[in-house]
Each structure stands twice: as C-alpha cells, then as structure tokens.
C-alpha cells in the first residue's frame, strides 16, 4: 500500500517523495489501460503455469518435467500432487497436454537466434533451464510410474473398492477431502472456489478498491496460520468494520483494535458484537490504519483462518489469497454450515459465545477457528469424522453386512503413465523417430523429418489428450557441422552482449582503477587491459546484460585528465543486430527493472563538476575516487550504503505495487544491485520516467534485460577470448542455421494454433553433453488460451 504521509523515512533520514509527477503518470496509464484490464480478467480463471520463485534459477531435470506432466494430465482427483518446483493453476480446466522435444538445440541456441524465434519468445511466458538427460526423454515419460495414492477415497473412485463403511464413504467431509491426513495446503481454499463463492479476489468486479496483502503465489505445509475474526456495526452504508482481532499460530493475540466506521452508525449490534456507542466514541483508528497494520504484520506466506472468513475480509476490504474456512472444513450435508460455537464445544470441548457474556469476543472466536483448523490438519479427515460423528453430525456409523464381509482384493493395476491415462479414458500418442518406448504400437507413428511429424499430427481429426512429438531434423544438421565448433560460436556471440570497450584511458591506468570505475553499473566478470604503443584501453565484461547497458549509457563521454573516454560495445560482425536483440529482451521483461544503489563516492560523481587544466570535468556516473585518483587528487572517505529489500520496496513502491525484489549479492559484499518486479508495466515505466529524481536518491535504473530464469547472462555461455570472438565471422553455416531456426519457429507456431484451447504446451530444447562439456537445454511452457 502506498504511504499516506508526505514524507517517508529511508536509511534513517527523511526525504521528499520521488517524482510526484510519476504518480500522475501511473494514474494516467491505469486509466488508459483500465478497459483492457477488465476485458482480460476472465482469462485469469483459465489454466496458467508459473515457476516457484526459489526454483526459477535452478535447472529442472527430466524427472521434474515428468512430475508436471503427471499432475497436468491427472490432478488431485487421481491423487497426484502439485509439482515441487512449479504451480499449475486451475488444473481441472486443462484440456490436453502437448510436449515437443527438439534434439540438438541448447539454451544458447535459443538466445543466439532470439530475434528469429519470434513465436517461441513471445508466446511462451515461462522458461526454465533444462538439464540434458542421459536417457531418452520420450521413453522416460511413457515408462514413468504414477505414484499410487494411499488415500482410500481416491482408490474407491478409481478402483471401485474401499475398506470404508458405507456411512463414512458418503460423509460430506470424506467425499470432499478423502481420508488421508495431509498438510495445510490441502485445505487452503482454491481460487476458483473463492470466485464461485464470491470471496474477495484480486481483479474481480466489486473488489477493485480492496487492499491486497503482499502474498507469495503459493504457500507450503510449513506456512504460518493466523486466526482472524471481526465484529461489524450497521451504518448508513451497510455493515462496516468495528473491531478486528488476529492471533498467531501459537494462539497469541497480535492485533485487537476497535475501529471507527466512517459513516453514521444505525445499530451497534451490541448483543452480538459487544460494542457500544461509548466504546467507539474516543476511537480514532480507521479502516485504512487497520489495513496497513495487517499488511505489514502478516508474513508473505501467511494463511488466514476463520469461520465464514469471507465476511471478515469483506468488512476489512482486504484481499488475501490463502485462506482456510473452518465452516467448510467441518462441513454438513446439502451445503449447510455449523455455527462456530457448536463445533468448538463438540471438538475442542470448550464453550464460547455463551449467554452470560454480552456479545462475542473476537479474540476468543479467532483462537477457536485457529485451533479447529490445527486439529483438523493434525488428525486428518477420517479421524475427525470417526471421533465426532455422533456428537457433531448427530448419527452413528452402523456397519452393514457388506461392510463386514471380507472384500476380495482387486487385481494389481499398472501405474505406468499411459496406462493410468487410458483407464481415465484419455488418449495418448507419440510421433517421432522410431524409439523403444513403453507404449502400444497403435499409439505410435514413426517419421524421419520434422515436417512429416508435424503434418501428421495436425492432420488428425482429434487431438490426443497427451501427445509427445519428437523433432530430430536439427540434430542431424548440427552433427554434420561439428557440434563443438557450433556451440563455441554460439557462446561467443552471446558473451559479446555483456562486453564494453573503454578508452582511451589516461596513461598508467590500472585494472583496479578501471574496476572501481565500472563496478557501479553491475557485477563484473573480467577486465582486460589493452595496451598499445600510444594509448591504453580496457575490455570490461559484466555478469549481466544490464551492467553493459548502463555503462554505455552513463559512462560514455566521461572526462579524465582532460580527455574524453569512449564506452561502446565491441564492433564485431556478430554484433550488428545486438540492439534489436536487447530491445526484444527488454520487451519480454516488461514488468522488471534493474536498479543500482550508489555509495556516497559514486553518488557524488553523478553531477560532479571540477576544473582540470582550466577545463570543466563532467563525470556522469563513475566512482569519483577513481576519477580523482587518476586526476591526481585526493579522494574523500567513502560511505557505504547497504541495499535491502525493505528500502527498495519503500523507494520503488511509490511508482506502483512491487511484487518481488531480488538482490544481486556478490560473495562477501553488501548487495548493491537489484531486480525489481512490478505487478504491472506502468510501475516500471513510471520509475524509468523518474530516473533523474532517482539519481538524486543515489539510484541508477534501466530496463531489466537478463531473462528471469538465468542467475546471470554468462550462465548461457562458456569462456572465450577476445581474439576468438573477433574471428567469429558470420559464415554460410550461420546463415543456414538461422534459416532453419526460422522455419522451426513457424512450424511450432502453426502447431500451437492447432492445439485446443486450454492445452498445456511444453517445448523442450534438449541440450546435450559431449567431451567439451554439458550444454543445458531450455524448457518453455504455456497454456494455449486460443485454438
């Protein structure tokens, strides 16, 4: 939430808000894009895939990919859990799964031919590095075993047998949650159910003015639970918040506030709320105050627990995506609900909301809801029902004759992935070169070329539910053109994008001085001094694309000892389209911003003006200590400024809601560089338009360029020397390869358009291993929203 005061505190001192005009720019952009946003809201209910933040920069394996395919094709109804490394939202709406495997291509090939692969780079929003497998990926997918669920309710649905008495089989708790004891994530209300039951959900009508908590996309079984309860009064505008209570997972009350409704109160509901006019008379706490406190206090992975919690969230005008509702845990037949006091007395053996008390105690109610959820998670659905069937649900389980007779053991069934799919009535197909895979021959088609594979697949009258396509043509081409040499050429081209040449430098300049000069722009990988008989130059290589970009924009033209140094990208044949590649990468990172926090010595040099030999020295963004040292002057002591997520959020939250901050920390040093992800592109644009104001606050900013799944741009390259790079001319093989990549991209685009709406499409560049090393592949994922 944006600060409400005219000043905010940063690093122990007060400063004015940055760029008030930026806020007007954000409002204007939101107004212009408002209609477009509303039109796109229904699509948010469609299936979508995202990689967990802590796994984004970790390569996935063939087993990880298979784990995703199992869940996408079968889901929780078959007892398959969400993958450990990603989240597939609204899995039940997935209509088909299509996997395309491209042999011979690596992650480096993708980024070398980034401009050519227009379909792949624009239509697949999720990318992750893929570790090459020593075994055939298609064979691994079809021979994989689906984990057999040990939940009797799942076994009953799919195998037709169960050891449960009939009374338990049809119990509403068992039919909803099964019998297996699970972690808390099994009971968090799915987003589609929240939408269906009219809970406050981001982007839905009627909730546009609600405040969103800073929550992660997905919670875990170790996420903290918080019990919440509110009391309301009736005002001229309807029910409004009058008191809120919050308890943590240990049962300790962390919030208990009376709240002054903004409108005239008609009825205090004292009998139920316990709130009187006298109690509210001296209160100055507002709804906004409470929202701010809750948003600050709740951890990003907090799970809120309450009884009919949607009413409390509406009163708070708060959107929180991770909730457990005890009225839906201890469920009754036909959608009816128990009162909180009834469940508490039956399960916890404790009385609340008694007649002798005036009104409800929200702390007591929040604690009861929390303990009921903890009890349900600890015991599991089956034990909860068996222990409290009579006292809570009002009937006993009477075993019928068929329950007493020993059930005949069901014959063991194959758990191979294609067999399980076919038992669910879902078709399977493989198209590619002849392989030894565990699949009926009737479901296989063998071809020797990509064109034949794709033409045959698109010629089918009905798309199979699971289809795996293997494209071998490019692999054959690469084998003919010496794969190790091709990979070396690819890596050299990519590394050039992180290199700048600087000079001429003053005579006697050292590598250490150059390092101090350029480190303000980003983490450095290597510096090479280029000494000629007359002048000194330097080749500076950054870890990130953004470092080179900032160096060119902010250091070019710096005057040192009266001579202007030029900072530019190397002029190689392979770099002629570098600007187009960088523009495309910037467009794909439309909500991400790169920021550098300067220390005092760097900051002082942003607008420094000094007299050197009677001329004015205008240093744009150098380390002033380096400039002064080279100019024969004494530098002032440096003041270090530590960059933290809190300070970044505070500064850049003024331009728009910040979704995530990634600090780029070098070993043994404070973080000075950060990647900031805004919830929408207008936040990034507002920050960029205020770059001059941010520079006064010791920040340098530029659009983010490095793809999110890479820890650094150098992760897609291997070491090459400047001499090797300068001799990497564009050959006829390069031109032929670019044509082949363009043809592949167009074919994949036609395939993508052919897939039914709601298809999970996965394209895997398999990468490869050789005597020259391991060359990672790339996995691209998207759910097709248009057929």
Care to describe what's here?
By secondary structure, the protein is of the alpha+beta class. The protein has 3 domains: 46-146 and 416-481 and 708-786, Alkaline Phosphatase, subunit A, CATH 3.40.720; 172-393, 2-Layer Sandwich (Nucleotidyltransferase, domain 5), CATH 3.30.420.10; 499-543 and 545-604 and 643-705, RRM (RNA recognition motif) domain (Alpha-Beta Plaits, 2-Layer Sandwich). The chain is 36% helix and 21% strand. It contains 32 helices and 33 strands. The strands form 10 sheets. Strands 6-33-30-5-17-15-16 form a 7-stranded mixed beta sheet, sandwiched between helices. Strand 9 and strand 10 form a beta hairpin. Helix 15 (340-348) crosses helix 16 (362-379), helix 16 (362-379) crosses helix 17 (381-393) and helix 23 runs antiparallel to helix 27. It is flat. The model is unreliable at 1-17, 19-43, 156-161, 482-487, 605-640 and 719-730 (pLDDT under 50). Pfam families: RNase_T, RRM_1. Keywords: Exonuclease, Hydrolase, Nuclease, RNA-binding. Residues 152-162 have a biased composition (Polar residues). InterPro entries: Nucleotide-bd_a/b_plait_sf, RBD_domain_sf, REX1-like_exo, REXO1/3/4-like, Ribonucl_H, RNaseH-like_sf, RNaseH_sf, RRM_dom. Residues 1-49, 141-165 are annotated as: Disordered.
Query: Briefly, what CATH class of the largest domain?
Result: Alpha Beta
How many β-strands, per DSSP? 33
Please compute the radius of gyration using only Cα atoms.
31 Å
Quaternary state, please? single chain
Whole-Å distance between the termini? 39 Å
Strand order of the largest sheet: 6-33-30-5-17-15-16
Structural class: alpha+beta
Name the CATH architecture of the largest domain: 3-Layer(aba) Sandwich
- Globular, elongated, flat, extended or rod-shaped: what is the shape? flat
* Number of continuous helical runs: 32
- According to CATH, the fold-level topology of the largest domain is Alkaline Phosphatase, subunit A
Poorly predicted residue ranges: 1-17, 19-43, 156-161, 482-487, 605-640, 719-730
The biggest beta sheet reads: 7 strands, mixed
Query: What fraction of the residues are assigned to beta strands by DSSP?
Result: 15-25%
Mean pLDDT: 79
The level of helicity is 25-40%
């Amino acid at each position: 939430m944006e600060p409400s005061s005219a000043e905010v505190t940063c690093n122990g001192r007060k400063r004015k808000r940055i760029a008030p005009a930026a806020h007007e720019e954000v409002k204007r952009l939101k107004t212009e894009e408002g209609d477009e946003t509303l039109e796109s809201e229904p699509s948010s209910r469609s299936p979508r895939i995202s990689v967990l933040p802590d796994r984004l920069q970790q390569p996935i394996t063939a087993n990880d990919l298979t784990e995703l395919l199992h869940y996408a094709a079968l889901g929780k109804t078959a007892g398959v859990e969400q993958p450990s490394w990603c989240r597939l939202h609204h899995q039940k709406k997935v209509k088909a799964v299509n996997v395309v495997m491209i042999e011979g291509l690596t992650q480096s090939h993708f980024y070398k031919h980034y401009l050519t692969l227009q379909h792949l780079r624009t239509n697949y929003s999720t990318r992750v590095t893929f570790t090459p497998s020593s075994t055939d990926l298609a064979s691994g997918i079809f021979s994989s075993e689906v984990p057999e669920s040990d939940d009797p309710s799942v076994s009953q649905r799919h195998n037709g047998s169960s050891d449960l008495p009939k009374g338990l089989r049809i119990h509403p708790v068992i039919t909803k949650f099964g019998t297996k004891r699970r972690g808390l994530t099994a009971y968090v209300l799915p987003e589609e159910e929240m939408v269906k039951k009219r809970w406050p959900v981001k982007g839905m009508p009627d909730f546009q003015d609600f405040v969103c908590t800073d929550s992660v996309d997905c919670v875990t079984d170790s996420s903290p639970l918080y019990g919440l309860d509110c009391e309301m009064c009736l005002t001229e505008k309807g029910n409004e918040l009058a008191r809120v209570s919050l308890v943590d997972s240990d049962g300790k009350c962390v919030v208990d506030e009376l709240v002054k409704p903004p409108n005239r109160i008609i009825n205090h509901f004292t009998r139920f709320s316990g709130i009187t006019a006298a109690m509210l008379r001296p209160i100055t706490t507002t709804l906004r105050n409470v929202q701010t406190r809750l948003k600050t206090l709740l951890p990003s992975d907090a799970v809120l627990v309450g009884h009919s919690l949607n009413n409390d969230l509406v009163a708070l005008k708060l959107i929180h995506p991770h909730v457990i509702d005890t009225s839906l845990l201890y469920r009754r037949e036909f959608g009816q609900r128990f009162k909180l006091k009834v469940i508490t007395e039956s399960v916890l053996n404790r009385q609340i909301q008694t007649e002798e008390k005036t009104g409800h105690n929200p702390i007591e109610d929040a604690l009861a809801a929390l303990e009921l959820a903890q009890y349900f998670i600890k015991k599991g659905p089956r034990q909860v029902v068996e222990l409290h069937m009579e006292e809570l649900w009002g009937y006993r389980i009477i075993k019928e004759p068929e329950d007493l007779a020993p059930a005949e053991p069901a014959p063991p069934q194959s758990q191979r992935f294609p067999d399980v799919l076919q038992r669910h009535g879902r078709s399977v197909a493989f198209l590619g070169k002849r392989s030894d895979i565990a699949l009926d021959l009737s479901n296989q088609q063998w071809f020797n070329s990509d064109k034949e594979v794709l033409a045959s697949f698109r010629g089918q009258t009905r798309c199979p539910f699971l289809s795996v396509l293997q494209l071998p043509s490019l692999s054959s081409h690469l084998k003919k053109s010496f794969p190790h040499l091709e990979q070396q050429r690819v890596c050299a081209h990519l590394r050039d994008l992180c290199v700048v040449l600087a000079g001429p430098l003053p005579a006697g300049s050292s590598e250490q001085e150059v390092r101090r000069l350029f480190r303000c722009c980003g983490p450095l990988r290597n510096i090479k001094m280029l000494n000629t008989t007359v002048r000194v130059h330097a080749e500076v290589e950054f870890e990130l694309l953004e470092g080179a970009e900032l160096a060119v924009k902010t250091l070019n033209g710096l005057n040192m000892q009266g001579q202007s140094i030029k900072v530019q990208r190397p002029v190689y044949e392979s770099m002629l389209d570098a600007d187009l590649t960088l523009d495309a990468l910037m467009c794909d990172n439309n909500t991400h911003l790169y920021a550098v926090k300067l220390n005092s010595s760097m900051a002082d040099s942003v607008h420094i003006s000094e007299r050197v030999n009677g001329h004015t020295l205008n240093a744009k963004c150098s380390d002033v200590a380096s400039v002064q040292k080279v100019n024969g002057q004494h530098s002032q002591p440096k003041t270090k400024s530590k960059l933290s997520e809190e300070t970044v959020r505070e500064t850049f939250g003024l331009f728009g809601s910040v979704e995530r901050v990634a600090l780029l920390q070098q070993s043994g040093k404070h973080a000075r560089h950060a990647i900031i992800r805004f919830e929408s592109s207008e936040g990034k644009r507002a920050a960029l338009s205020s770059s001059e104001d941010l520079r006064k606050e010791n920040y340098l900013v530029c659009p983010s360029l490095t793809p999110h799944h890479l820890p650094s741009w150098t992760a897609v390259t291997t070491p090459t020397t400047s001499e090797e790079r300068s001799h990497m001319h564009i050959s006829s093989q390069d031109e032929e390869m670019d044509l082949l990549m363009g043809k592949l991209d167009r074919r994949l685009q036609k395939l993508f358009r052919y897939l039914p709406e709601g298809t999970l499409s996965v394209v895997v560049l398999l990468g490869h291993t050789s005597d020259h090393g391991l060359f990672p592949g790339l996995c691209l994922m998207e759910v097709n929203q248009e057929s």
